Amino acid sequence: MTDRSAVPTIRGYFYQFDRSILSILELAEATESVAIECIEDIDVRTATDFTAVQCKYYEKTEYNHSVIKPAIIFMLSHYKDGLTAGRPSIKYKLSGYFESGQSKLVMPFNIDFLKENFLTVTSKKITEKKHEELNVSDQELKGFLEALSIDVDAAKFDDQFNTIIGALAKRFDCSLFTAEFFYYNSALRVIKELSTQTDEALRIITRQEFLERIDTSSILFDEWFVAKRGKAKYYQKLRNEFFVNGLNISSADRLFIIHVSESSYQRGAVKGLLKTISRKYSKLSPREAKPFSPYVLLCGIDDAEIAALKQELHNESLRFLDGYDFKDAEFDGASISRSATHSNGPDLRIFSYLFEAQQTFQSFLRSREIYEFYEITPVADFGDDAIKHVRLQVPDYKDIESII
Q1: Where do the structural domains in the chain lie, given as residue ranges?
Q2: Which keywords does this Swiss-Prot/TrEMBL entry list (predicted)?
Q3: Residue 132's pLDDT is what?
């Protein structure tokens, strides 16, 4: 049985990450910034204000004053420290989603309500008045209330997420799919990277810097994104977007780049993947006016193993070209790219080295598509903007078959 006890906690992390992304997207100016995990979960710096925001996602919790009391006490403590140190004043915001009970908190409230419900703590019959411990005067509490805003009716998890996707689609003038699987994916990665920096200065990012960092429009995948979407759903979405047509694909010079780590390499699995690519992305029947077949580049496999793999494919009657017409010949791009025929194929075209693929694809003037499945680092760009190059990070190459 699946243990779902941690699900609300995990969703809480994603909710906070999403709120960080949305806070950045909502900045009015390119130079305005957000800091992640500094004073609060999110510190928003605009041209006129500095607001420390703590956001919570209480999916299965009824609102009670005691739930947010620790956060209010922390904010008051920081407020008092700022007064003592003579720091410029800042604003404080607590934003949370609760399953129910929001009507218990009526805004605005006065100092007496603040003291009684948020600053008084009773434990083991001992009552502590935090405002007295912090030596905060009533006048200072009034100033704190003016700086404090509380929202216990924040957006639901899915509603906040959909708002982000809509904002990204509008900002980058793209489809909702592209907004989620390219830009949101990348945004989640950037927020994760910021939140793990030990130096506070490195956890600050402007709106302009954020948009530049997430504009990696040809790279997909982040493990946190996949964890949120679910591996099977993630791969199904990729399949629907890029590979659903299968045998109904149009004629194009289509290259599949497969990265295989030495530790996970299995000849049988790679051989099976090559046969699947050949079967799904070739059209060699007599009914096809312009027969064609795909290209493959295998990365991470040594020369001896490539030779052994090709030998087995040859023994199993898979017709392929590799650009080498005789023993000790130099690579010939014209050879590997010669026109396919109904009777002689090839079923597949196999590059052994990246330079072969780059040299050959740069020479074409027709439609070119590259689908790269990499584990850690993709190959260098092919240097031609006319080539469609989609990079998909798939840690286990055996999962590629479920995508294509």
Answers
A1: 7-214, 230-403
A2: Plasmid
A3: 94
